[in-house]
Amino acid sequence: MTAVTTETSPWKFSPIPNIEESNFNKILERFYGLGVQGLTKENIQNSLDGRLPNSTAPVIVKIETGTINRQDIPGIDHVIDRIKCLEGRNSYTKETIGHMLKSVNQDEVRYISFEDINTKGLTGAKNGQSHSKKDTWGIYAYNKGVHFEESDSKIETSRGGSHGVGKIASNAASDLHLMYFANCDEHGDQHLGGTVQLIEHLYEDQCYRSTGYFADLKEENKTSKFYPYENDFHSVFKKRTRGLKIIIPYLRSDFDSEEEIIKTVCDSFFISILDGRLEVQINDHVITAGTIVSYLTNNQYYNQEISEMKKVFTPLYVKTYKNENPREITVSNGERDYQFKLYFKYDEAIVKGRVAIVRTIGMKIEDFAVKSNATKPFNAVLIGGLEEDGYLKSLENESHTKISAEDIKDPLLKRQATRFINNLSKEIAKIIDEEMKRNNPTDGVMDTKDLLYIIETEFKQDLSNAYGAVKINQGKQVVKTTDVTTQKKTKKKGGKKGSVEPKSTGIKRTRRNNPTGTADELQESGTEIYSVSPNLVERLILNNHEFIQFNFMGIPEMKKKNSCHLSFNLIDGMGEEYKDEFKLKENYAHAFDQNSGSSCVIDDERIKNVSIRDGIVKLKLDLKPNYNRALKFVYYVEV
Amino acid sequence: MIYKKDANFPYPVLTNTSTSYEEPSFLLDVSLEENTNDYRFLINYEVSSPFIKKLIATGDAQAILIIQSKDNKFYKLDPNQTAIEVPKKRVSLNKRTSIQLHIQSNREIHFGENQDLTSFYDAFKSEIIVPNNALLGYSNIVVFEGSIQNPLVLFEKKLDEQLTSDIRIELGVETIIIHYRKEDYQFTGVRSSQAFNNPYIYAGLRTALQRFIHEYSEQGEEYVDLTQITQPENLLDFKLYQLMTKKMVQEVSVDNIDEVISLISDKIIEKYAGAVKELIHNGD
Lengths: 639, 284
What we know:
The complex is a heterodimer. By secondary structure, chain A is an alpha+beta fold. Chain A is about 25% helix and about 30% strand. Chain A has 14 helices and 32 strands. In chain A, the strands form 5 sheets. In chain A, strands 1, 2, 3, 4, 5, 6, 7, 10, 11, 12 and 13 form an 11-stranded mixed sheet that branches. In chain A, strands 21, 22, 25, 26, 29, 30 and 32 form a 7-stranded antiparallel sheet that branches. Chain A has a 5-stranded mixed sheet with strand order 14-15-18-16-17, with helices on both faces. In chain A, a hairpin with a 2-residue loop joins strand 6 and strand 7. Chain B is an alpha+beta fold. Chain B is about 25% helix and about 30% strand. Chain B is built from 6 helices and 15 strands. In chain B, the strands form 5 sheets. In chain B, strands 3, 4, 6, 9 and 10 form a 5-stranded antiparallel sheet that branches. In chain B, a hairpin with a 4-residue loop joins strand 12 and strand 13. The longest helix of chain B has 19 residues. Chain B is elongated, with a radius of gyration of 27 Å. Chain B starts with about 25 loop residues before the first strand and ends with a helix. Strand 19 of chain A pairs antiparallel with strand 11 of chain B, so a sheet runs across the interface.
């Protein structure tokens, strides 16, 4: 390849005599349509393909999204210069170039990177554009659509990629169609390369090809060759351990979703992860055999209702794969037989029956719908051996999302592929049928438990609740509750009744917050306040008088007491007390102590110094006209 | 509202803990029957005071049942009424549902003749006049504890390819047996295959009820009054009898047979229609 480019630019475009092609590479559009799912799948698959031979360590893929300064992106100004001179010749290219131009001025740029560990990385970077099959760097970096073949055919068959277009998936994820790849090989040599997918363009009076390479150009034997730069760039672009790191600056905002990436990893690679062959880190998330279930059972990522699993089936697949024993099935393409393992689960709750077709590297290709069984209640996972894998690979479409006969050109192979897919449906349909029959015997009791039943209802007579605020205790009127702990507690809570269960009946010690006196003040005055059970009170309204009688006979706290203060709180039927709402002076004109025959002072929301004679308090109150006769009270006595 | 705690009323109120009445009690017990549409609350209460009893009997006072779950619902009871029927959609039963019976005055009540009060009131009671719509007493609270569904085994199925018809309904010793000529007719393997068999269930119930009417109706009549017959000895008929009486069906006749089916079963056709719709919706 001869190439003369603008000398100083770190980006190299091959000069051409004139512009022939005015469109962007078509594959860009297709990968753009596959979204962040396609990007993630493609890159992880490449990492799995690059696993170290003879190693059992899982391939680790670190996915990172973040922001970098534009100036830290190697050679970015040169890319922007080129973009500025692109000329759209149809509405689609015009729109794309317009979008690129809108993006170039950002100072801070979103990026995503995929870094793999326990992988080989690319080889022969030092040889640059060597045209040797062994130098994978040269193929990866400077060719499109060339797929480097493994010298070991076993590895080659199980590889995920085969169309050689994976790298363009990364270009498609960038607003500028820009991607970098940092490599560290087994010798520790670190290099950075990159590509940008533009259109053929005129730059400084010279026409150039659409693809730009981030590479150095050296003249050798009168031909020029690309060589990679040694990696001394910003840390986002560094790859320090053996393996490859893809960096995509100007990440499209609709690709920038951690949640979607997590879901894609689970959806496409659950088998590799469950088998311990792959671990994926997405920023702070780590998905391993041990953690994947916590993502699958998380509502944020997956709907947990089986009846709602109509498009995404991963939680079902994982259950099927983990819990079911595989059975062998044989599928013929007419020429030869292929053996698969089928993990199968029958469950009436499942709305759509799908088979996950999985490659041996552990990547799911498709949610396969079995012909005329798409709504059968089952779930299954299908995995073959190496030969099966090889065959499946030949049936895959370019974006690894479907097996189909459509893309195959050879009419014989195409016929075989069609037969294979039909037979696959047939074999699985047989199993579905068997399981259905086993689960639905034709003879026996019919399940009508949702239709025909008798309801037995239970009610409980709740007598205790009706027994007033305080219970009668075996005929005794009251049990003292003033033990030390209660006092402390009530004091602390400043007015709340002690949380200790009242053993008492009749009256209960309390620290009532009253409008004017705090509990502490009351404490200082040396008196105690008790709430009075309704059972000790008789109350009657006649004309404009209210009679209230308290019976404190036999209550130890009230013994030897000759007088008390009384206060009132409103209470509703639910037992809710309303403090401070009822003002004595607004409702009562006078209070008469019927024991002593004298008037009582109403002050501080209390009726003061009411006499107690033989345990009985008798009060007669004159009502003011506005007194609401429907009100109900609980009473407090202070002695 | 339901009275959960006692409070001091300005006149005597009858409760289980009242100190205004001698030996007070006002006990309420509730049980429940139900069918597809309605609940029927069976109310059993006992008031200790002859004075209050008489007020209820004469209509001067009235018992009111209060069902409280999310909100309060009030049902006035006639003097001898012991049950109320409430449409299921009007009331929801759950663990927080509480029921209480109140007695409310329908006019001004003079307490002078009330011989059931404690002696405290002797001096005043001729002067006590309680206004209209006042609470005279309230019962204990009854709390809904929950319910269990006891399914009945009423149907069996059999595949019989020799059948001369597509399906055949046989009334067995204690079940209704549906014979199918083809396995396909059972909808095996279709999601919600059970619901697709509901029309057969319906036909089976109809057949069994027709025989029931024929067996237990009076000579020349076409209906059975379930309160008038003795429990059937035939096991299948006994199951139907049990189902109907528990589901508040009083009479089954040739004319109301479909209505009876809808009362004793839980939405046979609705569930069938739902399954069909779902199948269409999820179709390939």
